[in-house]
Structure formats: structure tokens, C-alpha cells
Amino acid sequence: MHNSQQAPSPGKVMIIFAHPDDAEGNCGGTTAKWAKEGQVIHYLVLTNGDKGSEDLSMTSGKLAEIREKEQEAAAKILRVSGVTFLGVPDGELEESPHLRKEITRIIRLHQPAVVFTHDPWKLYQLHPDHRAAGFLALDAVIAARDHLFYPDQLVQGLKPFRVKEVYLFGTDNPDFLVDISEFLELKLQAVRCHESQGLTAPGVQERIRNRASEVGEAKGYLYGEAFKKIEI
User: Fold this and answer.
1) How many helices (H) and strands (E) does the chain have?
2) pLDDT tens per residue, range 139-184
3) pTM here?
4) Does residue 137 contact residue 201 with C-beta atoms inside 8 Å?
5) Which domains can be identified in the chain, with CATH numbers?
6) What is the chain's Cα-based Rg?
7) How far apart are CA 94 and CA 114, in angstroms?
């Protein structure tokens, strides 16, 4: 397994994910580390997370507002430069031409050299939003590079853009390990922002810590995060 002591040369990174809290749990340590090393990191959150509650008095509208605020707070802790919310209802994310076009537009607008997203090929991935998010992000990465996809965007001043690297999280086949030993506490702090999801619970925090320890052990790190790296 490859390892990363440093981020790629200073540039832009986009993390495309299904729900508020997905990024912190999967790549929060890497985000904090790379931001400190000079990367400009942007979040693209595809759903509004409006279904994730066991509180029978909670409404979808109220939950969506809560989760947006939680996501913004977590992003601030990790020094993420900005957050874009597409606001698709939780559980309704689909691999539609409309969404692919919109994600392509956002990639062309921000021009990230690196994209992080869900591994849509993870075995027995039950959550449909996670599968759809991964496929949408990857399909948009390909569309963004070719000018004949969505020429109306070119008229709007959005030039074709080639993403150089994609890192898939939640993967069965990791081959790229990041040492997050100095950044685990920031990751956990960011995760705790998602109070509505029960992520402040000591048991949850301990599971995240234990998982990072298991991942890092492969390279002798105290804590790590692992990804499948794809060069475009």
C-alpha cells in the first residue's frame, strides 16, 4: 500500500459526498492534514440529510436546517474553504443526467485537481445514496474534461477541466494510506459537530479511533485513513 507524507503540490481538492457527516468520518483526518499543507478544499454535499433521525417529533425541514449548520461547523474545524449543498432529499439521490450535469458544472467552476468520493463498487454497500454519490461524482469527473459535454456551460465561461486524481473512501481495495496521527483529534472534533446523528457518543468516537488505529497499523502509523487512488 502506498503512503502519503504530504499532499499533492498545492492546489484544489473537492470532496463529493452523499450526506452531511460522510466526509468527516471517511476523510476528516486527511482533510485537516492537507488543508494545513496548503490545499484549498471544497465540500460538495449532495443530499440534505433530512431523513436521519429517530426523534418522532423531528420534521424533515427542521432536520435539514440542523444538518446544514452541523456540516458548516465541521468544515470550519477542518479548514475547508467552502461548502456547496445540492439539497437533494435524503434517500432520493439517483444517477440522473440532471445531477451529473450539475456536478460537472461545479467541478468546472472550482477546478479541483483532486476529488474524493464514495467507492460505489464497495461490496454490499446498502445505502443507495452512497452508491449514487460515487457514480455521479466519477461520471462528472469524466464529463468535466471533454468540451462536448454540456457546451452550454462553455458559453457560460466554464471551461473543460481535467481532474488528475480521484481517491475513493469506504473502499474494499485501499492502496493509498495517509498518516493522520497528528490530526485524529481534529477529525473527532469535526465528527462531534454532527450531534443530531449521535456522533458525540463516546462509543462512536471510540470506534472511529479504533478504526483509524487499525488502518494506520499497516504502515506503522498511530492513526491512518485509507483510500483507493485512481489517476485520470
Assistant:
1) 7, 8
2) 999 999 999 999 999 999 999 999 999 999 999 999 999 999 999 9
3) 0.95
4) no
5) 2-231 (3.40.50.10320)
6) 17
7) 23
